[in-house]
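User: Show me a protein chain along with its predicted structure.
Assistant: Here is one chain, sequence first, then structure tokens.
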Amino acid sequence: MMSLNVYLSGEIHTDWRDQITTAAEGLGVSFSGPVTDHEASDDCGVRILGAEPNKFWHDNKGANLNAIRTRNAIAAADIVVVRFGDKYKQWNAAFDAGYAAALGKSLIIMHGPDHQHALKEVDAAALAVTETPEQVAQILRYVLEGTLP
């Protein structure tokens, strides 16, 4: 049986990752993703490497440590799913999508219809553009088993 490594990138304010992993149970899919604890993600650099009085360097340290995780996980992934939520602009998600595309990864983008115009270039790089976690799980099932919902 074929198996897949899937990286789940994007917004951290809803349970979309849990919905996909639950719907994909038993498929032979291994999931990874960023640290979704917002405070831990923001403060990892200064908590590990030392305080920074300047907010730019505080954020820079955290971004660099998070990039170690993200770059390795995207490089190891067979498929990268990037979710753009409604509440915040996810600049990091757009970066992850571009990085995955540059590495030639199979890319699935997920967002609502309100983001179609803003994400047209990101969507053009994807092999699939979805609106729901269930659609992502159905794609994974089709890819692994060749079955339709």
